[in-house]
Amino acid sequence: MAKSRTTHSVLLGPGDMVTKWPGIGETRALELENLGVKTFEDLLGLWPHRHEDRSVITPLWMVQDGESVTVQGIIQSAHYDPVKKILRVQIQEGHASLTAIFFHASWLKRQFEPGYKAIFSGKAERRGHQLSMAHPDFQVMTEDREPLLGLVPIYPLSGSLKQVFMQRLMRDIVPRFAPQLSDPLPRPIQEQEGLISRPEAILHQHFPPNALALEASRKRLVFDEFLRIALAVLLMHQVDPHVPGMVQKPDGPLVQRFLASLPFSLTEGQKKAWDEIQHDLRQPTPMARLLQGDVGSGKTVIAILTMLAAVDAGHQAAFMAPTELLAEQQWLVLQNFLRPLGLSVALLTGKDRHADTYREALKTGSILLVVGTQALIGDRVEFKRLGVVVVDEQHRFGVKQRARLSLKGEYPDMLVMTATPIPRTLALTVYGDLQVSEVRGLPPGRKPVETIHLSHKDRRIAYQRVMAAVKRGEQAYVVCPLVGGDDEETQAKAAVDLAEGMKKIPGWRIGLLHGKMHSKDKTRIMEQFRQGDIDVLVATTIVEVGVDVPNATMMVIEEADRFGLAQLHQLRGRVGRGPKPATCFLIADPKTDQARERLEAMVRFHEGLKLAEEDLRLRGPGEILGMRQHGLTGFQLAHPLKDLDLLQRARGVAREIVRSDPQLVQPEHQALRTWVLDAMDDGIPSQVLH
Ligand SMILES: Nc1ncnc2c1ncn2[C@@H]1O[C@H](COP(=O)(O)OP(=O)(O)OP(=O)(O)O)[C@@H](O)[C@H]1O
């Protein structure tokens, strides 16, 4: 360690600001802040995203072309070419030499003083006797530095922060501050669970002596992540007498009239879910329920019932959709359902010119039912008394945003709807003490959507079938491919091209729908399609969720091999939503085995759950259907599916602790208490808050 550092920083503790460390000026402090680091303790928790194995130093003469290696040698020269803006550093080991090349890095030159030993890690290139390495990670062994070898941590970077700087900084900081941290987990529990201490785990997460130690460290830290969240959830859900509860009226007059107005009776699955929700709505404690049900299972009706229960109790209800188009869609659907009851629903989107008027009306309480996007949780929206919030397709939302909405309406009852099944333990962890209801089964008379895979050369068959359906007065979707990535711009262009081509087909009324259109036009097109004034709707994946036109019986998905299973299932769910049989054509010449198997799975399976399992099998647990969308933030090292075992153990331990000491006031739980409260400040409760 450098002398100056010892004298200047002798009194520092983990809670001190990193700016007190020599070498961390304003710029670096800001860059570190971008990584969420302000104090030394934060820095200790900045985990490397991987480790590079530099335990083997390959002799220069043995290095092969294209090999990723760590090598060493004595610096012979460092030349900067100002014209080509290239820095060349030559090292030598025995008779062999290597040139490291750095582009646009004149300032690096002074680091490479000839005579010192340098260690380079990177991909080598060999041309005959010439060996080179472009932009390697490097270490120069001046007197006060030990080389960093073995499993070397690779850190996330920000701005102009360099890997070498971070590694050196961590090497000074971690061994110094980690032992100063206390271990929040009482020792008996630690031993019972066979875990190493937290300070040791932190040390080894950065600088593991070997792979086994790294694994033991990970196990402890993952356990901690789960334990912290599980404790926060349990503590938050202990009944707080000061929480103003809200009771809704699930058997009020509007609910009754709505049920009577439906042209169908509820399915068994719907009845069961509604029973569970009713029970929650009657309690003064805020409801936090996840409503799971396959595409087309009839979740919307349940959402409406829940919202009406709030209105019957004199409260407001909000419906939050992931996109503006979906908010508009849902708004139309809700209006259709509620018009017969003489109820109006407001639509509040970001761009609406009536937005100000609506906001005022929400504040005074003259709007009872509102549909919107994130705009609903904007700082400018206030509710008089928000009783129920329904969140559709929650995976598109950040959990924090939902928490913000919750916080606005005192403690509204919250119903989160999803068509993507997620394992129960996972739901419990991610959404806290969320109860789960399932709408099992589909409304009567629904046949599975016949699914046919056609290669490009047989594409004609699909369009002939579409033509026949249009002749029968039915409607169709044509979903255009994801071209070169899935951005809306390129997709929109593909949709326009496809629609242009199809407009040439006589007798077809073609509509076009993509994300780049004005929301006014999108609504108009959807309304025309709903009314049956458009026969074939050419669309991007914008129609993936929520769109409900029961007369649409045909879907053609172009280049279907480019979509994931979750997406294909959602898309297919747009047809077969009425009593008429429906067909979905998947047009594709799959290039990989996996893509072919995905298409086969679509042809064979119709249930979301089955497809989720199939997806899991094809892709492995890391990519399970919808996992990424589920916003599994808040976990840094933990993988809630792979670490299911640790998750269950942590939940068990959390329950044990809270049972024996509900407020965590016993001396052995003091550290634990502070640690959990800190987590709540860090935003963990926003994950678990309804
Ligand atoms: N009990 C029922 N009997 C007959 N039809 C029903 C019943 N419940 C709902 N439906 C109709 O089934 C269609 C699908 O319902 P809904 O839109 O509520 O499904 P969803 O679960 O929200 O689907 P998605 O997740 O795909 O949006 C709608 O046209 C709806 O009117």
TrEMBL record:
Domain Helicase ATP-binding: 280-439
Name of the top EC class for this enzyme: isomerase
UniProt KW NAD keyword: no
GO molecular function, one term: DNA binding
Catalyzed reactions: ATP + H2O = ADP + phosphate + H(+); Couples ATP hydrolysis with the unwinding of duplex DNA by translocating in the 3'-5' direction
Keywords: ATP-binding, DNA damage, DNA recombination, DNA repair, DNA-binding, Helicase, Hydrolase, Isomerase, Nucleotide-binding
InterPro entries documented for this protein: ATP-dep_DNA_helicase_RecG, DEAD/DEAH_box_helicase_dom, Helicase_ATP-bd, Helicase_C-like, NA-bd_OB-fold, P-loop_NTPase, RecG/Mfd, RecG_dom3_C
Signal peptide stretch: none
EC number: 5.6.2.4
SMART domains xrefs: DEXDc (SM00487), HELICc (SM00490)
GO biological process: DNA recombination; DNA repair
Sequence similarity: Belongs to the helicase family. RecG subfamily.
Known function: Plays a critical role in recombination and DNA repair. Helps process Holliday junction intermediates to mature products by catalyzing branch migration. Has replication fork regression activity, unwinds stalled or blocked replication forks to make a HJ that can be resolved. Has a DNA unwinding activity characteristic of a DNA helicase with 3'-5' polarity.
Protein name, UniProt field: ATP-dependent DNA helicase RecG
Originating species: Sulfobacillus thermosulfidooxidans (strain DSM 9293 / VKM B-1269 / AT-1)
